[in-house]
Amino acid sequence: MTTRGQDIASVIKKQIEEYGSSASMVNVGVVTEVGDAIANIHGLSGVQLTELLEFPGGVIGMAMNLEEDSVSAVILGDDKEIAEGNEVRSTGRIAEVPVGETVIGRVMNALGEPIDGRGAITSSESRPVEKVAPNVVSRQAVNTPMQTGIKAIDSMIPIGRGQRELIIGDRSTGKSAIAIDTIINQKGGDLICIYVSIGQRVAKVAATVAQLEEYGAMEHTIVVAANASDPVALQYLAPYTGCAIGEYFMDQGKDVLIIYDDLSKHAWAYRQLSLLLKRPPGREAYPGDVFYLHSRLLERAARLSPELGGGSITALPIIETQAGDVSAYIPTNVISITDGQIYLETDLFNSGTRPAVNVGLSVSRVGGSAQTRAMRKVAGQLRLDLAQYRELVTFAQFGTDDLDDATRTRLERGQRISEVLKQAQYVPLPMNNQVVVLYAAINGFMDQVPVDTVKQWESNFIAFMSANHSDILESISTNADINEETETKLKEAIEAFNKVQLA
Q1: In whole angstroms, what is the distance from residue 233 CA to residue 74 CA?
Q2: If you placed Cys at 378, which of 262, 272, 438, 474 could pair as Cys (CB 3.0 to 4.6 Å)?
């Protein structure tokens, strides 16, 4: 009896000693099913959507389906070592990515891990990949140009900072080329560029990074790559990762350009993920929330009000069409979310018109207000001249013998303008150079130049202006306008150049 009493006393004594010590609670679940990088887990009652989960062996997963008694998670790594009965722990952390100045110039995956072989990314700050877009009150109007360096776009389909402009077209029509040229054009400027590659071959991504390095563009660029060989969950995460990095700089009052290449593959990845998670399929087997997939991403592109620093994110999403079908599900969704589209046409590309921009179908809904006055003066006339030229080409194909002089002149000028708008890859032009070339083309100073030598005339003219009339270029660049004095000087310069060039 005494022994029994001593046992009870020792237990009570131990309880008294341990009273008040902190108890730790860990949310734990058990894997009930695993396969195709999807794990069904029993338990984890307190888990949040997109919360990171820890599997055995340090493998990370992300909670996607939250049901009454189970959780479905996508595995962000190798699922070979995961088996039924394995213990899963919640981390309490929502999917996040490292941000900061140190990520500029780096190539990373969708989890923010470096894949460029240049060591770890040292960053003290991180951001959740998902965030609610700024509301209307937090934004200001788009009124500052974002120069692409491509004549056909800057003149007729201008893009403003804070805009969402869709690049759409069939496979191999030069969609990525426009995006890469735009990044190269920002060299020496104040724009930070983020290139998000989704579902592309490793070799293609490596070639793109090599091109950016060659032209000195990686100094202001971040590359987020979710390759075709990566798990589908990483392809789904990649655009949100890129956007989260961009928002860090936007909140600091800086301007950011982000390119999503491309959102068609992103939608395919999400469809695959949704079907594996047993979500009900809808049109074209896409889940019901596929519109929300892209709307919540693209709505995060904005130009913040001055009270919030005035920073901006300009988004250039890319969509690949099948046989020019812009009425398919994903293209129509993204067209309705964006502020305009640059439509690239296969026929134009194959005929040698590059960039293959269809000016008739392309539109920028807000960029016109962000266009410089100098460009606006030449661009208004340019669109009209091109439209009239295209109508006349159709009419004149039946024979040009009976055409009057005015019609023939318009046809000749249209040919030269079309030639001027052609532009090689990796040679974006500054705004002032674009303006002087387009001014010469529209005002008939190139009418005597043979069509096959127009490009040579253009390059010689730009070199002539840089060497002998840098004051005109400087004035257009500084004032963003062509005043009467500058216009007179420009006319004289073109005439002087033509005397030598056409002699």
Answers
A1: 6
A2: 438
Which helix (H) or strand (E) segment holds residue 74: the answer is strand 70-75
Give the β-pairing of 255-261 and 191-198. parallel
pLDDT value for 14:
64
Pinpoint the alpha helices (H) of 147-262: 151-156, 175-185, 202-214, 232-251
Q: Encoding tokens for residue 199?
A: 């579902």
Fold of 98-371: Rossmann fold (3.40.50)
Say which residues have a Cβ less than 8 Å from residue 99's Cβ, sequence separation at least 6. 123, 125, 126, 127, 244, 245, 248
Q: What is the pLDDT of residue 8?
A: 64
Quick one: CA dihedral 410, 413, 417, 419, positive or negative?
A: positive
Query: What pTM, to 2 d.p., does this model score?
Result: 0.91
Q: Coil, strand, or helix at residue 145? A: strand
The conformation of residue 453, written as its DSSP 8-state character, comes to G
Which residues lie closer than 8 Å to 12 by C-beta, 6 or more apart? Answer: none
Fill in the DSSP letter of residue 308.
G
Q: Which residues of the chain have a pLDDT value below 50?
A: 1, 3-4, 23-24
From the candidate CATH numbers 3.40.190.10, 2.40.30.20, 2.40.100.10, 1.10.3470.10, the one assigned to the domain spanning 28-93: 2.40.30.20
C-alpha span between 458 and 489 (Å, rounded): 18
Residues that are catalytic: 365
- Rounded Cα distance between 404 and 121, Å, is 68
Phi, psi of 90 (to 5 degrees): -80, 145
Q: Residues of 258-268 as b/e, b for ≥16 C-beta within 10 angstroms? A: bbbbbbbbbbb
The CA-based angle 287-290-292, given to 5 degrees, is: 135
Q: Which residues contact 182 (CB under 8 A, 6 or more apart)?
A: 148, 149, 150, 193, 257, 259, 316, 428
**Torsion over CA: 456, 217, 345, 343 (sign):** negative
Please give the pLDDT value at position 385: 82
Nearest residue to 88 (alpha-carbon basis) of 31, 165, 25, 23: 31
Give domain 374-501's CATH superfamily: ATP synthase alpha/beta chain, C-terminal domain (1.20.150.20)
Q: How many CB atoms lie within 10 A of CB 376?
A: 16
Alpha carbons 242 and 197: distance in angstroms, whole number: 10
Report how far residue 45's alpha carbon sits from residue 212's, in angstroms, rounded to the nearest whole number: 47
pLDDT number for residue 26: 57
Residues across the chain: 503
Q: What is the pLDDT of residue 288?
A: 93
By CB atoms closer than 10 A (0-12, 13-18, 19+), residue 16 is exposed
- Residue 336's closest CA among 196, 166, 158, 198? 166
